[in-house]
């Protein structure tokens, strides 16, 4: 089996090492345009839970990651001098170059062939390969060259952002909001090593223009942003590294497979930087692709499995959230200080929680029946099919949905999407 992997980012390297460990006879080559220690950006961050998954799949790289990472547990939102702290999260971070270095080392130990400073012109270069993994990042040439097949959609978000670093130590994941005469500027920050932190600066297009960032060089913009966050930086400087202002593109593809070619990582789908999960998702794609090969063996079957195994119908996913959040919205109408939360709870189940009218747990099984109402339509009007629809969508994806609640204190709907 000859495998060519275009792109030596976290996605490409992690698939290479997992596959080579499992099937040492495979001839695997990673082609990367940059040098091994060349990298854009600063730090990456993982949750404790993600590290647990890495431990399961490759203990050696997990141990190396664990040794190299800085840990913290709190998320702070800072606005107008007020700090709202949310504890117990469990994050860890390290520099991207450290992560790539330890994945490269592990690939080398296992016998993966890595060719740096190799620009892959296209998939035609790998005609003799049995499998071509396009892990070539957000601007994937493979995806763009074959747009008619992959049918990508790109939703360019309106805000501007740039990725900077600093020497400022931080004790939590920080979201600093600053009001300026030109508008609000936000910094998403976390420490990833002793004396090194990532500062992703985000602002609306209007504010960005009023600051004149559109015409400034990196050297000109740094002191301007330093002045905005002077208090938070406490004398530390910001550092640029090819830090262009960009609009975040949310990329999705209709299919991830074309013959023996498969997209993974940012080439396949992007995750907004505010959730700090792009690296994790690229590595989880590598795991999913590896699992498809473990389950199916042959290339065509494994890729067909990968293409459908994770696919969640985006229209249905939207309808599911609209129903659950709409439900929470409705049942918090009469609550003094309504609160609706969306998150991931134990065992990776998603949850939509509110502090509204709630329900009696004795009737929890009636909740998902069509036209089964626990409150009168006069009190809370609705179609009576929202939760039944939500359950159908979840089941269609092979998941489960359940609820907890109490009258007068709110409800929490948990669901899993164990996709087909
Ligand atoms: C502002 C910002 C902040 C972020 N913050 C975080 C964060 O905190 N945590 C996190 O986990 N993620 C973060 N990310 C996202 C993260 O960087 C990516 O999601 C992640 O690196 C995706 O991994 P990948 O392997 O798919 O692609 P990449 O890491 O982009 O790797 C692709 C590789 O392919 C190579 N390549 C591309 N084309 C070719 C070619 N033709 N020939 C040879 N080589 C090629 C590139 O040089 C690159 O090394 C952030 C992203 C941005 C923009």
What does this 3D model show about the protein?
The protein is an alpha+beta fold and 420 residues long. The protein has 3 domains: 2-68 and 95-152 and 249-309, FAD/NAD(P)-binding domain; 157-246, 2-Layer Sandwich (D-Amino Acid Oxidase, Chain A, domain 2), CATH 3.30.9.20; 314-415, Heat Shock Protein 90 (2-Layer Sandwich). The chain is built from 13 helices and 21 strands. Strands 5, 6, 10, 11, 12, 13, 14 and 15 form an 8-stranded mixed sheet that branches. A 6-stranded mixed sheet has the order 8-2-1-9-17-16, with helices on one face. A 4-stranded antiparallel sheet has the order 18-19-21-20. Helix 1 (10-22) runs parallel beside helix 10, helix 3 (59-68) runs antiparallel to helix 4 (96-110) and helix 12 runs antiparallel to helix 13 (386-396). The longest helix has 19 residues, at 278-296. The chain starts with a strand and ends in a 5-residue tail after the last strand. The mean pLDDT is 89.
* Reported CATH architecture of the largest domain: 3-Layer(bba) Sandwich
Low-pLDDT runs of 5+ residues are: none
Terminal residue distance = 27 Å
Round the Cα radius of gyration to an integer and report it: 23 Å
Task: Give a topology summary.
Elements: E1 2-6, H1 10-22, E2 27-31, E3 43-47, H2 48-57, H3 59-68, E4 70-72, E5 75-79, E6 82-86, E7 91-95, H4 96-110, E8 113-115, E9 131-134, H5 141-145, H6 147-150, E10 152-166, E11 173-180, E12 183-193, E13 196-203, H7 205-211, H8 218-228, H9 230-233, E14 238-239, E15 246-253, E16 257-258, E17 261-263, H10 278-296, H11 299-309, H12 314-331, E18 340-344, E19 350-354, H13 386-396, E20 401-406, E21 410-415
Parallel strand pairs: 1-2, 1-9, 2-8, 5-11, 9-17
Antiparallel strand pairs: 3-7, 4-7, 5-6, 10-13, 10-14, 10-15, 11-12, 12-13, 16-17, 18-19, 19-21, 20-21
Helix pairs in contact: 1-4, 1-10, 2-3, 3-4, 10-11, 12-13
This protein binds flavin-adenine dinucleotide.
Flavin-adenine dinucleotide (FAD) binds at residues 6-12, 31-34, 44-45, 119-120, 135-138, 141, 161, 163, 200, 265-266, 273, 276-280, 282.
């Amino acid at each position: 089996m000859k495998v060519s992997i275009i792109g030596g980012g976290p996605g490409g390297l992690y698939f290479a090492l997992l596959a080579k460990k499992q099937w040492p006879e495979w001839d695997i080559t990673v082609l990367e345009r940059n040098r091994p220690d060349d990298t854009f950006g600063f730090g990456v961050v993982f949750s404790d839970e993600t590290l647990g998954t890495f431990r399961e799949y490759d203990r050696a790289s997990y141990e190396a990651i664990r040794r190299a990472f800085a840990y913290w547990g709190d998320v702070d939102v800072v606005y107008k001098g007020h700090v709202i702290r949310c504890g117990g999260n469990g994050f860890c971070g390290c520099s991207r170059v450290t992560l790539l270095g330890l994945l490269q080392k592990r690939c080398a130990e296992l016998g993966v062939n890595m060719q740096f400073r190799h620009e892959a012109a296209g998939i035609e270069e790998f005609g003799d390969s049995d499998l071509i993994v396009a892990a070539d990042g957000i601007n994937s040439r493979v995806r763009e060259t074959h747009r008619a097949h992959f049918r990508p959609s790109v939703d360019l978000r309106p805000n501007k952002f740039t990725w900077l670093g600093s020497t400022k130590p931080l004790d939590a994941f920080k979201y600093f909001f600053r009001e300026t005469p030109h508008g609000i500027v936000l910094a998403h920050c976390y420490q990833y090593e002793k004396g090194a932190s990532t500062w992703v600066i985000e602002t609306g297009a209007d504010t960005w223009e009023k600051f004149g960032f559109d015409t400034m060089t990196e050297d000109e913009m740094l002191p301007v942003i330093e002045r905005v966050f002077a208090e938070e930086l406490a004398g530390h400087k910001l550092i640029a590294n090819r830090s262009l202002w960009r609009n975040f593109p949310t990329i999705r593809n209709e299919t991830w497979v074309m013959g023996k070619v498969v997209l993974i990582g940012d080439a396949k789908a992007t995750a907004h930087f505010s959730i700090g999960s792009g690296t994790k998702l690229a590595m989880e794609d590598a795991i999913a692709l590896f699992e498809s090969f473990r389950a199916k063996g042959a290339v065509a079957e494994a890729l067909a499995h990968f293409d459908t195994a994770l696919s969640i119908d985006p229209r249905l996913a939207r309808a599911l959230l609209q129903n659950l959040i709409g439900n929470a919205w409705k049942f918090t109408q009469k609550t003094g200080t309504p609160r609706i939360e969306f998150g991931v709870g134990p065992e990776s189940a998603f949850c939509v929680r509110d502090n509204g009218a709630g329900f009696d747990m004795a009737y929890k099984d009636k909740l998902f029946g069509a036209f089964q109402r626990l409150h009168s339509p006069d009190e809370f009007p609705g179609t009576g099919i929202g939760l039944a629809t939500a359950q159908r969508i979840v089941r269609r994806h092979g998941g489960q949905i359940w609820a907890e609640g109490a009258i007068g204190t709110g409800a929490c709907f948990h669901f899993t999407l164990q996709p087909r």
